[in-house]
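Consider the following assembly input.
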Amino acid sequence: MSRGLSGFRAWLWQRATAVYIWLFTLYLVWHFLAAPPADVTALRAWLGGPAVWTGVAILGLALLLHAWIGVRDVLLDYVKPPRLRVALLGLVLLYLLANGLWLARVLLEVG
Amino acid sequence: MAGLMEFRIWRYDPERDARPRMESHQIETTRGMMLRDALLEIKRRDESFAFRHSCGEGVCGSDAVNVNGRNRLACITPLAELKAPVVVRPLPGRPVIRDLVVDMSRFYRQYEAVEPWLQRADPLPEKEVLQTPEERARLDGLWECILCGCCSTSCPSFWWNPDKFLGPQALLAAWRFLADSRDQAQDKRLDALDGPYKLFRCHTIMNCVDACPKHLNPTRAIGHIRELMLKKSV
């Protein structure tokens, strides 16, 4: 079977993360409709709770992984020159890494 | 349906023409006439016009062409179903040899790559390897493929990566042998299909299902292969 994050393994991770993202999004929509936080302090307190904090951290990782596999698939399909492909993959990786670091910072602030 | 019908035919001879051109023909049509009949009439008028055909009844798969933007077999496409002007082009994504004749060697190589024959580890029995009616029924919708190439040449993933992505036809054939109770090379076949390109370039676009003149469903077959990989991995 697959080595690293390609082929079957990448396909499986993309679907697994999609399911988690979908379920957690449903929870977020339900939460913000049913009991919206009154102000920023309440939002920070909600986000700082261990269950939500862990859920959002996993959501962040799932989004990054899902986006990486998806964008990499598009680049594999359409970008043929190896150097250009590596450069674009590098840019995508940097962008996702920056987003991950930003999310980590937010979570560390409220955690 | 009878009367004059306009056909716009893609013409290109790499040895003579600098670029392809569309050639217009008015053909007198008759009731029950198929596209292949119209192409034969054009061939009668101009012998230099080239297209493949053989059985004339949707069995050999030779006369696959792109008609009004859709891949079809000319011999089983009634003119009554087509909107005039009928625009006939070679199958997309394949190098053109001349006019409507394309080079299908890459397509056949991808078919060969899935090793489309029964493989057994056990010694062969005296007569045949028996199957239950249920085991045999699993092959329906798979063995009927005639290798016309309508599916693979309508698949954008095959256009982008014809050398690496096996394409819907070869993957349908792969599932035909993975699903066969007599075959004993399932693990080897699945390992060979893994990786970023051979199977997983399929993005479920489903042009293959729309194009197949035998009404087969390569997308479903590809889904079955992925399910089998999942079953084997847990």
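The radius of gyration of chain B is 20 Å. Ask yourself how this observation constrains the way the partners meet.
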